[in-house]
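[stage:ingest] chain + small molecule (zinc ion)
[stage:ingest] validated
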Amino acid sequence: MSELRYNIVTREWVIIATERAKRPKDFLKAAKEKKILPEYKQDCPFCPGNESKTPGETLRLGDEKNWKVRSVYNLFGALSPKDKPQRENNGIYLSMHGFGNHEVIIEHPCHNTMIPLMSNEEVEDIIRAYKNRYVSMQDDEGIEAIIIFKNHGPSAGTSLEHPHSQLVATPIVPPQIRSRVSAAMGYFDSTGYCVFCKTLEEELKAKSRIVFETDKFVSFMPYASNVPFMTWIFPRRHVPSFSGISDGEIKDLAINLKSTLQKLYFGLDNPDFNYTIRSMPVKEGGTEYLHWYLSIIPRLTQPAGFELGSGMFINTALPEESAEFLRQVKSH
Ligand SMILES: [Zn+2]
Ligand SMILES: [Zn+2]
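[stage:predict] done
[stage:export] tokens:
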């Protein structure tokens, strides 16, 4: 028998196909041959010495020569701050100039490292850079949402090997963010609680889907996970916007994020994954019902026709079993 589960945060139903459920170890087969990468690559625009290949630096942590993290404009940015947030009607259709922002955050000078292999301090610097770029854009006129994300590996859509994340600021509130806001508002209206705080409370009580806990963050698998090993990292403190992350929380998130990614790295042999920081629309700070978090989506399966046709996912892994499996994997 399969089971349908409802996600109260996203208002999405998912089919947990328990009958054809795979054991956690079965997902190892999805891991492909990994290339061994060099520490430095002469023609990589993100490697030290090639800084002139990335014009438009917006942030450099560390000193001039030995930088730790840099952020730069995306050379082929999807949106640009040079345009204007202006809407245009073409008959019944609506369009807008490509206004916004698109930056790349180069996470480390080393070509072949990644968060699970970095020191805590190095991961902290990446999160500090995220915050710096987020805060610097959130008050810009016309910016409505900022999405910070990372693509790791070919099935996660990465085009460059050097460890990097991206940040896109959009002139509209994307429909998915709008729908999360309305779900959270609806929950608040009927219960008087933040749906994220309540979810965290419930997960800490149930324990079965918890992956890793630190002082200020909890990583766990959502009850109605869309895909195998999907993991959420929630701050314990109620803060609507990622820009509200404190320095103590940055330090703690570095440990939590690194340990959670280590469990995936060692447990599933470096799977491809995306993660995204889900913060609320930038002009809606300070609410009682919105709460930022980080979502990790391992790319172990491919969405197919049913997912495309319905927006509903079939998950072939039990979140409780996957969480139990990751809990056993040691992080350092
Ligand atoms: Zn490189
Ligand atoms: Zn909350």
